[in-house]
Amino acid sequence: MRPFKFINPIMNKLFKIFTALVLLLVLSQCKKDEEPISSANYWIRLLVLNEVTGLPISGAQLQLLEGGPSVTTQTDGKAVFNQNNLEAVEAQITDSTAFPVSIQHPDFLSRELTVALGESTVKLTPRPVVKDPDTLNYSYKMPDLLSDGLEVANWNDVGLDTLKIQQLMEKIEIQGYKQLHSILIYKEGHLVLEEYYFGNNDTINFEGGVIRDKSPAPIQWTRDDKHYIASVNKALTSTLTGIALEKKGLTTDALLKDYLPEYASYFENDSKKAGVTFHHALNMTLGFQWDEWGSNDLVQLWKSDDFADFLLNRTNKGPGSEWFYNSASPNVVLKSLENMVGEPIRTWAHTNFYERLGITDYKWQNQPDGYPEGAARMYMRPRDMLKVGITYLNNGKWNGEQVIPASWVEKCMDVQEITNAGNYSHFFWIRELEGVTYLSADGDGGNYINIFPDQDMVIVMTQGNYLEHPLYVNQANDMMGNYILPAIK
User: Fold this and answer.
1) Helix (H/G/I), strand (E/B), else coil: 245
2) Helix axes 232-247 and 329-341, enclosed angle (nearest 10)
3) Cα(69)–Cα(411) distance, rounded to whole angstroms?
4) What whole-number distance in Å separates Cα of residue 99 and Cα of residue 92?
């Protein structure tokens, strides 16, 4: 019994030491877990896997924001954005612990998502492969007949080579076009094609420096979703102008100064500014010093509290002297229209235009001073965009009622300015593709209302490729030039 008396105290002592060590280890781990984010762990490590096989994907390109730093996955499917990468873009986002990342690989469908600091796993879906290029998998469905005033028909009934259109649909589904959200074709009085796709829900943050806002989550687009259509709104402002001028018995020769009394001081001692007409404003030949595409004029405009004041305060070289794309111009026109019609332009526009076409579910955002924005910041359903195009196709009539003056439609289809960017008329573009001339309401990102009078056709597209010119132009031209126009019998 004596040996046990000797060993027991030793065992007790060892047990106490062991317990103390375990306790210290637990406490140190807890302290480690509670440490705040520091420069030592300010990174993002991504593991990119094949969604089907679970295997790592090498050669995938990961990019922070639009045009930001990029990295490529290694053979183990991993890639790291380091501290320098993250600090290079954190000033452009609202949350410096979550970063928008786009992932692209030729063999997989692209993904855009927001990832947090630390380690994350992302799975990519393989692109479908058609072994026989002559095998077509797209299943056509005639558009639904709704109570929105749009007539529908089968694409076989409107003089189209449906095999050519089916090949386009197959290309969209198999190869894809980057961020194509919808495509609608109206031919010979009927909507014959209406397709929607999954994609981003990006917009433009004007107040933050005219940058792309990728914070909204991607969605499956449907006909009920309002899409940001950017500068397509310029064509809508043009339409409102044509309606208002006719109602007041005026022409585009009317002087802007007569409808901007609150800015009279700018016109009193400057004959060049006083000579600017609606025609000059609608065709972007106002004469004011401006360079939206080559400098930061648009960014500076959005830092001002009054768009009209910002433009009118600039030097004027003489109306009609030169053409410059100018997003302040539609806003000055819109403010002039409100004084012309004698009521809030938002209310007047809804009553005299949108409501008459049955367009009631749209979002029209404001300038910084709360005034409706006339150059962009409009969200609209693709079917409602189509209604606008149909009305122009039908010389201003919607369901037999004259909504837009026929003379205004004719004026918009007559080239006013020949520019390096294309022919221009009253906030519309007049384009030519494969020998076919058409009227186009263009919006950044790839949003279009394209009107083809000679082909009795309207094509509406929405894309989410904001600030990615000429990508979205090339995609639209490929769809129309290589498939839709050749399909017309």
Assistant:
1) helix
2) 30
3) 47
4) 10
**Nearest 5 degrees, angle CA 254-CA 258-CA 260?**
120
pLDDT digits (tens, 9 = 90+) for 93-102: 656 677 888 8
DSSP string computed for 323-382: ----TTHHHHHHHHHHHHHTS-HHHHHIIIIIGGGT----EE-B-TTSPBPSSS-EEE-H
Those residues whose C-beta lies under 8 Å from the C-beta of residue 156, and which sit 6 or more positions away, are 162
Q: What's the pTM?
A: 0.75
Is pLDDT of 136 > 80?
no
End-to-end CA distance of the chain: 110
Angle in degrees, CA 13, 19, 22, rounded to 5: 145
Give the Å distances, CA to CA, from 118 to 38, 49, 51, 62: 12, 17, 21, 15
Distance CA 239, CA 330 (A): 11
Spatial distance between the Cα atoms of 275 and 473, rounded to a whole number of angstroms: 35
Give the pLDDT band of residue 381 (cuts 50, 70, 90). Answer: very high
DSSP 485: G
pLDDT tens digit sequence for 337-374? 999 999 999 999 999 999 999 999 999 999 999 999 99
Residue 116's DSSP bridge partners are 98
Sheet holding 98-105, edge to edge: 70-72, 61-64, 98-105, 108-116
Q: Tell me which DSSP letter residue 480 carries.
A: I
Under 8 Å between Cβ of 203 and 165: no
CA distances (Å), origin 114, targets 48, 190, 317:
14, 41, 47
Task: Give the phi and the psi of residue 460 in degrees, each rounded to 5.
Answer: -110, 135
Determine the Cα–Cα distance for residues 200 and 181; give it in Å rounded to an integer.
Answer: 8
The CB density around residue 389, as the number of other CB atoms within 10 Å, is 24
Q: Which two tokens stand for residue 177?
A: 């076009």
- DSSP line for 146-213: -SSS--B--GGGTTB-HHHHHHHHHHHHHT--TTEEEEEEEETTEEEEEEE-EE---EEETTTTSEEE
Cα 155 from Cα 54, distance rounded (Å): 41
44-48, 329-333, 430-434, 460-464: segment of lowest average pLDDT? 44-48
Distance CA 18, CA 107 (A): 55
List CB contacts of 96: < 8 A, sequence separation 6 or more: 86, 90
The structure tokens listed for 382 are: 């693709």
- CB neighbours of residue 19 within 10 Å: 10
Residue where the block lists tokens 């802007």: 256
| CA–CA separation, 143 and 155 (whole Å) | 10
